[in-house]
Amino acid sequence: MSRPPEVDVTIALTEFVIGRTRDSDGDEPYLWVMRFKVDADTIDTGVLPPHLGVRTFPGTLLTLVAPAEQEIGPGDTPLAIRPQLGAFQTRVRPCRTVGGWFEGLVGIVCLTWEVDNFDYSTQEAGYHAFQKSFGPLLEVELNTLLAGDPEYDDALSRNVHGDVVSAPPDDLKILWRVDRLGDRDARSNVVELVIKRVKSQLRARIESAVLAEADIFELADPDNLTGTGAAVFTSRELLGGFSPIRLRYTEEGADYMINGYTLARRSHHYSIAGTILSAFPCPAVWTQIEAEVCDYGKKTYTVTANEVIVTTRFALTTLAGEQPTRVVWFLDSVPLTGASGSVAVPFAGVADIALGPASPLATRWPGGEGHIAYTIIDKFTIDLTNQDCHGTYSGRLHAFLTYDGDPPIDPDQPGTLQQLDDRSYHTYDDFSILSVEFDYDEAYVRDLENCLHQQITNQTGQTFIGISGPKPRPGQPRPNELTIAQSLIQAHRLLDDIVVVHTAHPDITVLPRLRPR
Q1: How many Cβ atoms from other residues are within 10 Å of residue 507's Cβ?
Q2: What phi, psi does 415 have (nearest 5°)?
Q3: Alpha-carbon distance 205 to 214, whole Å?
Q4: pTM to 2 decimals?
């Protein structure tokens, strides 16, 4: 399993709807809202099984849905729920536990009440009891679930229709329970059972606090609890987009509905961008090729092949969120350790990029093993340079990132790609290095222009239609197999029907090397 992302979550209860009032002359509903999460910030992994802690985030005490002393009915709703009461934002951080990752849970629980005779101080006393009790009660139930409980195992095993879809295994049941919490239906079953188990204890603690605060006149006609609703999500589930919330309350003769939504985005956004830093072409060979362009007859053209040392700079950019605390680079499956070094890589031949009169030269660069040198400029920047000119190299540069609180990575012995993918964030960039390019004489370019009836060179004499194949130049984005293929499609469309090469085995002049290979 790949490392789940950290997620910034928004949960909002937005509107209150009355389908039926408890009192015939209208209701005065109010809400108690509690938000919570279970994630790396709350889970103790130092014990077996891990202890699932719960962090709660109370709502505001301004809990009335409508203005004070205003009785409302179905025709007065929907009413907007104040953002300070219904809206909430937090970050959910996955936790690495025995057997893999626990994505984290985030949720909201809301109790609906109908005003009768409680003073505000009595309501406040009850709310504080709710605020103090809910988290510990939920924590007990979650750890009971994890340790094993027949009712919870049964709830986890069933879908929304009550059918058993995943029976508990004979062993490794903790892993099964954690995995089933990620299933929406199983989690919904668990939420219903948690509410059932917690509700009576919660009500008892609220009633105790209310009795200690209320006078005899208030207790003669107490406020009524009309229901308890909750919605719980995994972080990965929330990344699927907008998720609606529907909570329904039907106790004490009332029928209320609360609508809301969840939104989420990854906490950390990053990308790798590669740019050609330098390209040093050195003429390697030249030859004369007999070819025919359009119907101009056979002519002899001069073709020069250059070997090119290309340095490509890759920068890891943070687009949102904090910067990572550590970055480990891989080239294909090889870790790039230390400040610099070299990696053996396979180069492909140049037959695909040796166009027109250059095609007879392709056999000189059939591909083979070469080397890519790397220099780590800083934590977020790395340069890659081909040390050989055997053709075209296409590969993948990986970056593995960790943030504060993540499992550590040893930069000198980081492990394998699969191990890092499980422990850290991962991004990559596919790129190519073109170490051979071809130039053509003016006569060939001029004949092509006359044949195509368009200019194919710019003011500096460089061809800008891809008749000479792709060429790396400083400042350009790094090429990759896709961009190279796209440029070659254009070139082949132009050249295949109008250029015929007659020389299959030309005499080749090898030029003196002005620099080491």
Answers
A1: 7
A2: 100, -165
A3: 14
A4: 0.81
